[in-house]
Amino acid sequence: MAADTPPGSTSATGSASTDRFEDVDWDELGGLGLPRRTRYLVVSALVYTAAVGYDVFLTEDALISGTNWLFLLTLLAGTFFVAWPLAENKRLTAYYWRRFKKNRAAVVSALYLLVVFVLGTFGPLFIAKPELNVLAAYQPPMFLGVDSSVPSTCVGTVADGVCQGTWKYPLGTTSDGKGIARLVVFGMRVSMQVGLITMLIVISIGTVVGTSAAYFGDLVDELLMRYVDIQQTFPTFFLFLIVTYLFKPSLFLLITIFGFLGWGGIARLVRSEALQRREEEYIRAAENAGASDGWIIRRHLMPNVSNTVITAATLLIPSFILFEATFAFLGLTDPATPSWGQVIASGRGDLDSAWWIATIPGVFLFCTVLAFNFVGDALRDALDPRSEGDA
After folding, report:
1. What sections of the protein cross the membrane (predicted)?
2. 196 and 232 share a domain?
């Protein structure tokens, strides 16, 4: 059987949908002539800007950190530009889901990432940050017993000199008595923040630069691509080292440096795709109809390279998570911010006697990176209409 075609698609990518006249919700288009999603987006943007302004300029100590504000902005962007369109275009969403679920490993990975996202986003709101407790050091995970040379410090039960795990510390503790379960949850938040926020910055800048270079061409294309060449040769890692030396290391610095200097590859990828779309008839028709350059880029070029952008974004996230884990392992991040790399580093000297300290967060890091790769591969197959359809 031939490959499926996205219902209501307007281009080869199948990224946009066309509603029939009788399917249009004309009430939704009312109110200042703006669609409902645009109205809610404008209101949310105003509220967000006002809240950030109040927190930054009208409070002595910021109530919310800069990283958390960026994470909230990322969640808003995901709601309006990913979740909302998927909910509106039910037929197209169902079509892509049928293609995506063929990859069972990707479905399992997506469920795992959903759990990590929910726990990482909301878990730290309900559980306290892990605190130092030397009396609970080296406690084993649940259902595991280890020889205890100092049974009096064992939080669980002790039988014949063996310390048993306890529900108080279900995944055990570190050498300074911090619960690994809590550290894992807080590490989930750090990984999601680094991956999603940096991805949003990279994708936003790279898409704008790539589509602009492809559409305008000539001098604009030459200037933008030569700047990309220069930026990609710049050692971002050394800049991060210099900045952390001059200022206090923080997650915010890591995200902004890699976000604002890491979009070159995406810009090239988007430009390559947009150059093909630039010659399509619908672009010519829009130009002949008198549409502005900005309108054509926003309404035609960007939607029709969105499949490429979404796939690239999914595959970018694990690389940013690994960057953060690597820097945390090397001690180049804020020690007050729990992350998986930091916990792995703290347990590397105890692998023979307390293997769980480094192993458990390492397993979560490995599974998260692998899950994003599985999901990215499946999205590439699902969103590409040129891939093989149902047999």
Report:
1. 40-57, 69-87, 107-127, 194-216, 308-333, 353-376
2. yes
